[in-house]
Amino acid sequence: MSDDSTGQARSSRAQAAGRQTITPTHRWRNNDKLIGIGNEFWDMSERNGLAGIVADLDGNGGLRTTPGHEFIPDGHEFVNFSCCSYLDLDSHPEVIEGGIEAMRRYGVLDHCIARSRVQIPAMLELENSLGELFGAHVVCSIAASTATFGLLPLIASGHLGDGTRPYMIFDKNAHISMANLKPVCADETEVVTSRHHDLDFIEDACKKYARVAYVCDGSDSLGGYAPVKELAELQDKYGLLVYYDDSHSLSAYGERGIGYVRSHSPVLDERTIVVVTLNKAFGTSGAAIVLDGYSKETLRIIERFGGALNYSQLLNTAAVGAGLASAEIHRTGELTTLQNRLYKNIELFDSLIHTDQAGSTFPIRLVPMSDETVIEAGRRVIEAGFYVSPVFFPIVARGTAGLRVMMRAGQTEEQIRRLGQVLVEVGAQAAPAPEKAVR
Q1: How far apart are CA 323 and CA 258, in angstroms?
Q2: pLDDT band at 303 (very low <50, low <70, confident <90, very high)
Q3: Containing H/E element for 55?
Q4: Which of 63, 253, 371, 377 could be disulfide-bonded to 55 (CB atoms 3.0-4.6 Å)?
């Protein structure tokens, strides 16, 4: 069904039965459009063996499909170039052993009670370790989306900030985990959406309103970083509060893996809030809220009124132990070695395939395709032994589909070069040859 056809069908059935129907405002979201258009691409993806895949790790960095997928052969081997574990720490022996050791030490998997009531020391141990790593106070959560769900409404009401309800600006490209909170925040304050990184719009709002909050990705899931230094200038000039989700750069960027925002922002105080997932390059599970300059009273507000941040849905003991082990790796030279391997692989890919993200340390590349060709291209790539995820509306704007390639430290030169050849064969633009030096 296209666009609003699903909703129209429901409305017609209700009217035929003589019942009153609801007309949606679609002020903050439009599921009829979202599902009506997006589901066609997802169905095509599954029919072409690009979604719903079940595969075992083969022990050598590759995968092998298992029975159950209607459109992809059993036992098909491929290399995954669509994984967020940029440093391959999720399979690091010390991380795995850390999870096992914590289970033995604490003797329980889940201590199912709100942390404001009773908690075992496990998560506090992880929060203290991460706090030392980041040089800030850390509150852990079961997921970054859970952290966002708890924090953004408190920002909207002024309880997390200086007490003033802010004019709340969501970046147009803010991850869905943040964008989904627009209607909730709008029940507390005025909410608007800006164009991507529209600094002029933000500054105009700062001139008009006593308090402004800007919600964006510090590192975008489709490649690129936020203008952290320019935003810091607005923070200093107007007191702008910036909420960053910097999940894609944690561990992969910065000394001790502190991420892009904390490596570059000169404003690390109560005006800057950073949320990061631990599921990507950090290699474990859960999320961390990184806070600077907040009082114990404010932290109690977050703990008590941050929704699922305080429910009995906390990090389990295995995740805590794995997190502690990964944090220790971040304190050693091994992290720098892994980062450098990742950057070398990114540089190699950029020498083969042209993308708008070329030249950045960011580990994601979006290879442009059309809406009409992206599924077929993805199918040919996986048939050749590589998986790259096709992205389409509503993941990206209509007409800007592409193949999302994710680089990792453990990928080999041979794998990257072969993938580059396959991508060119399916329509990607080869990178220009380097200019020869003039003698």
Answers
A1: 14
A2: confident
A3: strand 55-57
A4: 63
Predicted confidence (pLDDT) per residue in 14-53, tens digit: 565 678 888 888 888 888 888 888 888 888 888 888 888 8
User: Coil, helix or strand for 377?
Assistant: helix
Q: 277 near 219, Cβ under 8 Å?
A: no
Distance from C-alpha of 83 to C-alpha of 14, rounded to nearest angstrom: 44
Distance between CA 124 and CA 409 in Å, rounded? 30
Report the predicted TM-score, pTM, of the whole model to 2 decimal places: 0.90
61, 43 Cβ separation under 8 angstroms: no
What is d(CA 229, CA 246) in angstroms, rounded to the nearest whole number?
A: 15
Distance CA 223, CA 135 (A): 26
140 backbone dihedrals φ, ψ, rounded to 5°: -90, 155
Instruction: Identify which of 241, 172, 182 has the alpha carbon closest to the alpha carbon of residue 206.
Output: 241
Q: Is 338 helix (H, G, I), strand (E, B) or coil?
A: helix
Instruction: Provide the 8-state DSSP code for 89.
Output: G
pLDDT tens for 236-260 read: 999 999 999 999 999 999 999 999 9
In the numeric block, which tokens belong to residue 369? 């395709």
Comparing C-alpha atoms, which of 408, 434, 419 is closest to residue 87? 408
Q: Where are the alpha helices (DSSP H) in 307-433?
A: 317-330, 333-352, 374-383, 413-425
The two beta strands, 167-171 and 55-57, are: unpaired
